Amino acid sequence: MVVNRPVLDPALEPIREKVRAGERLTREDGHALYRTRDIFTLGEMADEVRTRWHQRKVFFNVNRHINYSNFCVLRCKFCAFYRPFDKQGAHAEDAYEFSLDEIVTMCREAQEAGASEVHIVGGLHPKLPFSFYTEMCQAIRQTCPNLHIKAFTAIEIVHFTRITKPKLNIREVISALREAGLDSMPGGGAEIFDDRVHDEAYKAKVGEKHWFDVHSTAHELGIPTNATMLYGHIEGIDERLTHMLKLREQQDRDLAAMGVDHADLPGDLENPRGGKAAFNCFIPLSFIPDGSEFGSLPGPTGLDDLRTLAVSRLMLDNFPHIKAFWIMQSPKLAQVSLNWGVDDLDGTVVWYDITKREGQGTNDQNLRVDQLRALIREAGCTPVERDSLYRTVARDADGRLTSDVTTPRS
Ligand code: V47
What we know:
Elements: H1 13-21, H2 27-35, H3 39-54, E1 57-61, E2 63-67, H4 100-112, E3 117-121, H5 130-143, E4 148-151, H6 154-163, H7 170-180, H8 195-201, H9 208-220, E5 225-231, H10 237-257, E6 279-286, H11 302-315, E7 321-322, H12 326-329, H13 331-336, E8 344-347, E9 349-351, E10 364-366, H14 369-378, E11 382-385
Parallel strand pairs: 1-8, 1-11, 2-3, 3-4, 5-6, 6-7
Antiparallel strand pairs: 9-10
Helix pairs in contact: 2-10, 2-11, 3-11, 4-5, 5-7, 6-7, 6-9
The structure holds ligand V47.
The site of ligand V47 has 23 residues, from strand 5 and strand 6.
């Protein structure tokens, strides 16, 4: 629906023309969108693009996040999740690592509760061998054949290349995980693609080159992935826009390898296709300061969250989906964002350890399907239960999955 309310900020007039004509926005346009106080026009433009892609549909999935261990060799200043591994065993009281049996039990429980996806990520554990991760995928695949395994950030994949003996490269590591049952990969670990921010906030972590190497390799292998951006800490607006533009360029290349020209989008985008894949979804992650070394920073405001989600929809014209991860933006703001360009809320989540809203908080972070549906309906949208590849999920009268939710192997 094209709305003809007056644009309060003249700087948005030419951008609105471009958006209506389906033209690509520039970095300068991005700055104008971030600067404007006319957030209603910003929202309308983002909503127009979102509607072109998905009409009034809002996607959610029934999933379970599993954070298999919080031991990590890194010390990222934004992170409250990691616990140092002490060789003498004097670990923090709340340090943990789940056994393979425990992980499989969680997956079985998730499947019994109707989940179509498990989302599995953890810290960079200094001791666990690569076989732990391949056996994890194998055991889940064996026990829960129709549960989509979305697992391991690019940072974990690079870590695995370093712990394999003999050494495996990125392609070999991803291929081994896929062989073991991995279906797709999440978008974590991207943070902000900028050297200054990298060196000040997460110096020991591999940088953008590795992150892109992992994702482009996954795409070449036909494994779809997502991309994130951790915003609202020490980065500036220009760095956020650089981050988005780098992702947009990469997505152009990966779509071209799938035979898709970005100028033809929005359109039907089966992903993977022709044995290749691309990014499915962009997820701006709202920085939660509590408990991290950056704990004294204020974190993003509600308006910054809303604006960042809307700007993402407008700048990333070749990404099919923009997700508000309600765990970080909060269910209330995530609901509002459904009219500001967002078409996906992630899922039921159930348990989450990487961020907690109220200081020490709780890991039980769960939205039921009826709650997700109600949030979406109240925003004037149509809830659609999707699988990890954004196909509509089919269930029988008892709620059991009847569609295949794993990634087709070419
Ligand atoms: O990699 C860490 C970020 C990521 C904090 O792909 C923080 O569908 C905010 O990547 N405040 C993990 N963010 C989460 C993630 C994700 C979540 C949901 C869906 C998908 C997907 C991916 O969270 C980490 C890091 O970038 N993070 N600490 C923090 N204090």
